[in-house]
C-alpha cells in the first residue's frame, strides 16, 4: 500500500529438422519497363513447372523421385509470382508441419524452394487407433484441464510426426480451454495415448497500446501545469502518450498474459490486440498496468531470477474510488484506486504495489514487524523510483516516486509521493509509520543503485529477501544484503554497502 498525504493508502519462422533445406535458385525476372505478370500461364502450368523442378532435383531435397508423398495443397497467383505449396504425407496422411513451397517467377522459372520435408527410415506400426473420445481425454489430461473447462469444440486430425528417423502415428488435437486459457495444440500417440508434444497456440501474441512511460511529468521532463481535471483528456497529456508493444498476450483479445491478468469494469477487449486509448477512457489504465507489470517481471527475469513472482498476477484496475492502492496477501491480487489522479496512470505507483507482491512471494507474511513493514514500503519505493529512472528519457524526478500521482496532493517541484534522498537516519528519524520510516530504507537501496548501477543493486536486494523472515529488522535486512553480495559477487561491494548503510544508522 502507498500512503498519500493523509490517506492510507516473419518473417515466418520455420521449425525444421536438420535435414530441412532452404535453397535459392536463380531465375529470370521482368526487366525495368516490363509488366511482370504470371497470368500468361495457367495454374496447371505453374504447378507443372514446380513439379518438374522438384523431380529434377529430388536428390538434392531428399524427395521421392515421383513425388508420391507430396500432396499439392494450393497454388497462389499474384501479379509478380506464383507460389505452389505441397504437404508431406505418409499413407496419404499429413506429416504435421512438414511442407514444401516453390516460388515461380513471372517468366515461369522456379525461383526459390523452401523445404521442411523430412526423410524417415521406418513407420511405427500400430494394431489399433484410439477412439476420438479417448484421444480428447488424453489431450486434456496432458494440458491439466477437464472437459468442462473448454470454451470451444475440440478438433482432431490423424497423421504423423517424424522423430529420430521414425514416422510415428499421432493425433493432432487443438483444445480450447478456459483455465489455462488458450488454444492448445497437442500431439497424442494414436495407440498408447502418450502426449508427445503440447503448446499454446495463443501464447505468444504481441499486441500494441498507448501508455504514459513512466508518467507524463517525467516524459515531459520539466515542471508542467498538467492537471487531473477529473480524468479529462487534454492536448498536453495526450501528447505524452507512448506507443509500446504488449508482450505475451494469450490471444483471447483481453489483457491477459503470463505475468498479469487485468480485471476491471472496463472489460477491455480488442479482437486485433490493439489497445490505443487516451486517459479519459478507463481502458487506458488497464493497458498501463498490463505493460508496466509485464515489463518489470521480464526485467527481474533478465537478472536471472525466474522464481520470483513468476505468475500471472490478478490486477483489479480502477476498482475503488479511494485514493488508495494495495496488494492483498490473502487474495494475492493488486487493486488500484481512482481518487485524485487514477493510481494506475503512474508507473511508479504500479511498480510500488507490485513490489509488495514480490516480497510476499519471496517471504510469505513479510513485514510483520514495524521495521519489516518499513522495509516493505521502502523496497516498493526503490523498485518504483529506479524503474521510473530507467524508463524516463529525462533526469526530471530523480530520487522521487509517483510524480504524476502526486499532483493531486503535493505542491513541490517535482511533486512526489515520497523521496529517496531525505537523509533520514535510524533511529533518530523513526516515526513509527511504515511509509515515512521506509524512506530510511529506500535511500540506502537507492544509494546502492547510484553506486553500483540499477541491475547490481536490484540483484542484491532480491537475493537478500530470501534470507529474511516476517519479523525481520533493518539490521537483518542489511546483513542479508551483505550475504547476498558474498554469494553473488564475492564480497566485492562489501565496503561500499557498509558505508551506505552506516550513513543511515543501520549496522
TrEMBL record:
Keywords: Hydrolase, Metal-binding, Metalloprotease, Protease, Signal, Zinc. Residues 1-24 form the signal peptide. GO terms for molecular function: metalloendopeptidase activity; zinc ion binding. One of its GO terms (cellular component) is extracellular space. GO terms for biological process: proteolysis. PANTHER family: BACILLOLYSIN. This is Zn-dependent metalloprotease. It comes from Marininema mesophilum.
Amino acid at each position: 500500500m502507498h500512503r498519500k498525504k493523509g490517506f492510507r493508502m516473419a518473417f515466418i519462422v520455420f521449425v525444421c529438422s536438420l535435414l530441412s533445406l532452404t535453397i535459392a535458385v536463380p531465375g529470370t525476372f521482368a526487366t525495368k519497363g516490363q509488366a511482370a505478370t504470371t497470368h500468361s500461364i495457367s495454374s496447371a502450368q505453374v504447378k507443372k513447372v514446380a513439379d518438374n523442378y522438384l523431380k529434377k532435383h529430388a536428390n538434392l531435397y531428399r524427395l521421392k523421385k515421383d513425388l508420391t508423398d507430396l500432396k499439392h495443397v494450393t497454388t497462389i497467383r499474384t501479379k509478380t509470382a506464383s507460389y505452389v505449396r505441397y504437404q508431406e504425407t505418409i499413407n496419404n496422411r499429413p506429416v504435421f508441419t512438414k511442407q514444401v513451397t516453390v516460388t515461380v517467377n513471372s517468366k515461369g522459372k522456379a525461383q526459390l524452394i523452401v523445404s521442411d520435408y523430412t526423410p524417415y527410415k521406418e513407420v511405427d506400426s500400430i494394431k489399433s487407433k484410439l477412439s476420438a473420445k479417448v484421444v480428447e481425454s488424453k489431450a486434456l489430461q496432458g494440458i491439466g484441464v477437464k472437459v468442462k473447462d473448454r470454451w470451444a469444440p475440440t478438433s482432431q486430425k490423424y497423421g504423423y510426426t517424424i522423430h529420430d528417423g521414425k514416422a510415428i502415428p499421432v493425433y493432432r488435437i487443438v483444445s480450447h480451454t478456459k483455465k489455462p486459457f488458450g488454444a492448445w495444440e497437442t500431439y497424442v500417440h494414436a495407440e498408447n495415448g502418450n502426449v508427445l508434444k503440447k503448446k499454446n497456440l495463443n501464447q505468444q501474441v504481441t499486441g500494441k497500446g498507448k501508455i504514459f512511460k513512466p508518467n507524463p511529468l517525467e516524459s515531459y521532463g520539466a515542471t508542467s501545469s498538467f492537471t487531473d481535471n477529473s480524468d479529462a483528456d487534454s492536448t498536453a497529456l495526450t501528447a505524452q502518450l507512448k506507443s509500446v508493444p504488449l508482450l505475451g498476450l494469450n490471444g483471447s483479445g483481453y489483457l491477459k498474459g503470463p505475468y498479469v491478468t487485468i480485471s476491471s469494469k472496463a472489460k477491455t477487449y480488442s479482437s486485433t490486440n490493439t489497445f490505443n486509448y487516451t486517459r479519459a477512457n478507463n481502458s487506458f489504465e488497464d493497458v498501463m498496468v498490463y505493460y508496466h507489470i509485464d515489463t518489470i517481471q521480464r526485467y527481474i527475469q533478465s537478472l536471472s531470477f525466474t522464481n520470483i513472482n513468476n505468475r500471472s498476477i490478478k490486477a483489479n484496475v480502477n476498482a475503488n474510488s479511494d485514493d488508495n492502492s494495495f496488494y492483498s496477501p490473502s487474495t494475492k491480487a493488486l487493486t488500484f484506486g481512482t481518487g485524485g489522479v487514477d493510481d494506475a496512470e503512474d508507473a511508479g505507483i504500479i511498480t510500488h504495489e507490485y513490489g509488495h507482491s514480490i516480497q510476499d512471494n519471496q517471504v510469505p507474511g513479510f513485514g510483520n514487524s514495524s521495521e519489516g513493514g518499513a522495509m516493505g514500503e521502502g523496497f516498493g519505493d526503490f523498485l518504483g523510483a529506479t524503474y521510473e529512472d530507467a524508463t524516463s528519457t529525462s533526469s526530471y524526478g530523480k530520487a522521487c516516486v509517483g510524480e504524476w500521482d502526486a499532483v493531486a496532493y503535493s505542491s513541490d517541484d517535482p511533486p512526489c509521493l515520497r523521496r529517496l534522498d531525505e537523509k533520514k537516519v535510524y533511529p533518530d528519524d523513526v516515526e513509527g509509520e511504515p511509509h515515512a520510516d521506509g524512506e530510511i530504507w529506500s535511500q540506502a537501496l537507492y544509494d546502492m543503485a547510484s553506486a553500483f548501477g540499477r541491475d547490481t543493486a536490484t540483484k542484491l536486494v532480491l537475493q537478500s529477501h530470501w534470507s529474511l523472515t516476517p519479523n525481520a529488522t533493518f539490521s537483518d535486512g542489511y546483513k542479508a544484503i551483505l550475504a547476498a553480495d558474498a554469494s553473488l559477487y564475492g564480497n566485492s561491494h562489501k565496503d561500499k554497502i557498509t558505508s551506505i548503510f552506516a550513513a543511515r544508522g543501520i549496522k
